[in-house]
Amino acid sequence: MSWVLLRDLLSGVNKYSTGIGRIWVAVVFLFRLLVYVAAAENIWKHEHDEFECNIKQPGCENVCFDHFFPVSHIRLWALQLIMVSTPSLLVVFHVAYRENREKHHNQKLYKNPGKTDGGLLCTYLISLILKTGLEIFFLVLFYKLYNGFKIPRLVKCNIKPCPNTVDCYISKPTEKMIFLYFLVATSCLCIVLNVSELSYLVFKYSIKCYLKRHVKNEQ
């Protein structure tokens, strides 16, 4: 999978982000995207082939693997990474709309098309809410699908066509567990950063509105 488009998207969003937003971009790019491409993807690359059960009953191993791993960890993380980055497109599209509007009218309509104020501020806040919601959704989904954030060494399976309860072994469980905790931790960090940035922008805008109203009343 090529991640060039996602990298370019994150680079473009970085221009319109606050200081906290730039930290979020750095965390996503360095601790999620690069770790995924450089290491995590290879660890789960042959997870089905390396899943072994102590029986050769045709179909048993495939059914057990599908039961305990309904969705591949690595594909779910890839989908999560794409989905939580997509709301940032709203900001990029809004800035592009402002720039095209100025070209169409052939005059300066905004002090700075990329400045987060007015409608662009609302778009930015919506993108933060969506990113936070998607992060939480995927964490809950992962927890529900795999019964917690853990990689067991041994799973017991008694699903047909298995004739009885069989032992199935997952390859490299310790290594996978380390990366699992790392990716969950970075996801939680991104949630904290998004909530912090959202709170900062709401507080900043509230103070700005209060000062404007105060000055107007004084006049």
From TrEMBL:
Domain Connexin N-terminal residue range list: 42-75
A Pfam family hit: Connexin
GO cellular component: connexin complex
GO molecular function: gap junction channel activity
GO terms of biological process kind: cell-cell signaling
Membrane disposition: Multi-pass membrane protein
Alphabetic keyword roster: Cell junction, Cell membrane, Gap junction, Membrane, Transmembrane, Transmembrane helix
Lineage top rank: taxon: Eukaryota
Location(s), subcellular: Cell junction, Gap junction; Cell membrane
Record-annotated membrane-spanning stretches: 21-39, 77-97, 118-143, 178-203
Residues in Connexin cysteine-rich domain copies: 134-201
Family the entry assigns: Belongs to the connexin family.
Oligomer and partners: A connexon is composed of a hexamer of connexins.
Function statement: One gap junction consists of a cluster of closely packed pairs of transmembrane channels, the connexons, through which materials of low MW diffuse from one cell to a neighboring cell.
Name of this protein: Gap junction protein
UniProt lineage: Eukaryota, Metazoa, Chordata, Craniata, Vertebrata
